[in-house]
Amino acid sequence: MDSAGTAGRSAEGDAAFVVLADRRRGGCPTLSQPMQTGDGLLVRLRPGTPGLSPEHLIALAQAARRHGNGILDITARGNLQIRGLSLETVGPLANDIADAGIVPAQGLAIETPPLAGYDPSELCDPLPLAGALRSAVETAFPPLVLAPKLSVIIDGGGQLDLAAVVSDIRLTAEMNDGKLLWRLAVAGNAQSAIRISLLPTQAVIAAVMDVLRRLSALGPRARGRDLVATEFASDEKVVAEPRSPRHPAGLHALGPGRVAFGVALAFGQIEAEALIAFVQETKSLGAQELRLAPDHALLALGIPEDAADAFARCATRLGLRPDPKDKGHHVAVCAGKGACASAMVDTKHAARLIISDAPALLDGSFAVHVSGCAKGCAHPASAPVTLVGAPTGYGLVVNGPASTLPGVYIEEKKLDEALSRLDALVRSEKHAGESARACLTRLGASRIIAAVQQG
Fold this sequence. Notes:
Elements (H helix, E strand, L loop, with lengths): L4 E5 L5 E6 L14 E3 L2 E6 L8 H14 L3 E4 L5 E6 L4 H10 L9 E3 L15 H12 L12 E5 L11 E10 L2 E10 L5 E6 L1 H18 L31 E4 L5 E7 L3 E3 H14 L3 E5 L3 E5 L6 H10 L2 E2 L9 E3 L13 H11 L10 E4 L11 E8 L2 E8 L7 E4 L3 H15 L6 H18 L2
Parallel strand pairs: 7-8, 8-9, 18-19, 19-20
Antiparallel strand pairs: 1-2, 3-4, 4-6, 5-6, 5-14, 9-10, 10-11, 12-13, 13-16, 13-17, 15-16, 20-21, 21-22
């Protein structure tokens, strides 16, 4: 075994899995490759079905409590993580998941909107196309060798599309002269990705497989950004209009008598007992299916609209966020000190201070990033404001990722004062109709840092 990880063993003594030592190596934690974190081993699950029954989700929570530390995450991309495992408990966890009839998705990550096949406003149900692509990848010969984190988005539209989610390859449904076509693009979100072609449905699988073969030929670490842009040159100059994506929390009307209710996990985490109680109560309200969603969210399908108040009360009582306007949605937080060996600060404490002392930043125009270390796992991209854990407290990065050298350092005990000054700056300088992001961009790093250093 090389430095990428250590071999784990089953009760029978055979090598059963490999522990990922460092996510920067490009691997994703799975049941067969758990990742070492500050609170033990972590596994990530992508359900092989669009949703989970209440019984399935309860079984997962019970397994997390039995074999881990009882803490579960829903990631920014809508995957489920189970924390606090050990070399001895990963195998039994996998057995419990299999015994419950839950089949995790394997191989290439093919992502569809959380309401795919259920939302009548989508241009097309993307699930059949996703199934056809998965089958093509699994039966490809010679087999494709793809990067572990490579992802494909197939977005049929609807109320909760994936336009804001970055992907290596993306297919987006469009109507053109009354015909359904699929926009193929690489490396980015719906706005920034390099557009390749506009395809009829029958040509999509062959086109995507061609891109995947090119990536496979580049090597096992190749991502969409590694493709030469000129290789997919397009004469089209169409630019997607920027827009604010709808948050999964709240009520989503889906036609006569049909709604979906969404909640977000506070800072992306929930204890198993709270999740079990939430699922049991939503089931009593009529929930028949639960779907994981981006932005650390969970959707309940089947509950009647007149149960909205009961649903919101239940979620709030259990520490979940049912309000789409909750300012906590706009803080991106990693697991933090205690849950990650690399983290130097309690990121959730800092996030709570941002919500209480700097609400002017949280208008939804961007997410304030709080990272326990310079790896920036919760938000790898650049952000207008990032707080990074440092030996003496926090580093403030303006318009950069967590890996950027901070412009100023803030003592932990003075973080609330610094945030209050930043809040006051935005309130006093923001023009009418201007977003917090636009205001901070206009002011620039020097002005922001100077304001934080006052006092």
